[in-house]
Amino acid sequence: MKKYDPLEDGISSVELIRVSGSDLDIANAARVSYGKISYELSEKDKKLVSFLMMHDHTSPFEHNQLSFRIKCPMFVARQWMRHRMHSYNEISYRYAQAPIEFYTPKKWRYQHQINHQASEGEFENIEVKRKYQESIDLAVKTYQEMLESGICRELARGVLPVCIYTQFIFTTNLHALTHFLKLRLSEGAQWEIRQFAQAILEMATEYFPASLQAWAEKNSINITKSVD
Ligand SMILES: Cc1cc2nc3c(=O)[nH]c(=O)nc-3n(C[C@H](O)[C@H](O)[C@H](O)COP(=O)(O)OP(=O)(O)OC[C@H]3O[C@@H](n4cnc5c(N)ncnc54)[C@H](O)[C@@H]3O)c2cc1C
After folding, report:
1. What's the CA-to-centroid distance between 82 and ligand 1, angstroms?
2. What residues of the chain score a pLDDT lower than 70?
3. According to the model, what pLDDT value does residue 2 have?
């Protein structure tokens, strides 16, 4: 199965590790209302799937499962896990020593002038970038010194910045996933999590093309367009 590097830094990743179900299962979940079943996805089934999506008949989209292995900065994971209708298991820096992998933005952005939670433009200042890296280096050095002195991992990790990478398994169904995608692909969401949402949308569409094309059309979303 495919693996993407959404932040294009050679560290971030989204890997689709398991899929069960298909557009046909979604059509059949709806057809059971009439005691009917299809064995091959017909044009009629695709139209039915599209109708269900367009009219918010959501329950037929819950009889499937997609599991992804995600590697993202800790602050992206914090936003991600606010979504409660999914299952998660994450690496623990109580059990494992934290990796020396941190996210450094390729492009720094200014604080948005009007929208308090947003960013805009491109900030060019080599001195600030150098200080960002220096503070990571100092945090890593302190972390390692604390571990060497015998301090436990669960407390020493407190010195690490939120741009540190974390890993987790994210399992969902198409109903819950489309809700997540709608919120995290929107312009109001942070650029970094939007890159992950876009990668997930592209990967999931390979397995549920009728459903996700209908969803994208409904929400005026371009499935393959990269998000700015
Ligand atoms: C751009 C953006 C900015 C944000 N900023 C902040 C912020 O500043 N601070 C902050 O704390 N959060 C923030 N959030 C998180 C946001 O408030 C939601 O917690 C998050 O988007 C998850 O949405 P959700 O509850 O709809 O999704 P899920 O948790 O996946 O839930 C899906 C749906 O299930 C139902 N549901 C789930 N749990 C309950 C419940 N307990 N009661 C009733 N219905 C439930 C709701 O219909 C919900 O829409 C932000 C989110 C976005 C997208």
Report:
1. 6
2. 225-228
3. 83
What separation in Å is there between the alpha carbon of 184 and the centre of ligand 1? 11
Residue of 69, 84, 109, 184 marked active site: 184
pLDDT, residue 7, reads: 97
Task: Tell me how far the alpha carbon of residue 5 lies from the centroid of ligand 1, in angstroms.
Answer: 26
Q: Where are the domains of the chain?
A: 3-91+165-218, 108-159
What are the pLDDT digits (tens) for 132-172?
999 999 999 999 999 999 999 999 999 999 999 999 999 99
Q: Please provide the DSSP assignment of the chain as one string.
A: --EE-TTSSSS-EEEEEEEE--HHHHHHHHHGGGT---SS--HHHHHHHHHHHHTT--GGGGS-EEEEEEEEEHHHHHHHTT--SSEEEE--TTTSPPPS-B---SSEEEEPSS-TT-EEEEE--HHHHHHHHHHHHHHHHHHHHHHHTT--HHHHGGGS-TTBEEEEEEEE-HHHHHHHHHHHSSTTS-HHHHHHHHHHHHHHHHHSHHHHHHHHHHTT--SSPPP-
179 Cβ inside 6 Å of ligand 1: yes
Domain 3-91+165-218 matching CATH 3.30.1360.170: the answer reads: yes
153 lines ligand 1 (CB under 6 A): no
- 184 tagged catalytic: yes
Residue nearest to atom 37 of ligand 1 (CA): 84
For residue 184, what pLDDT is reported? Answer: 98
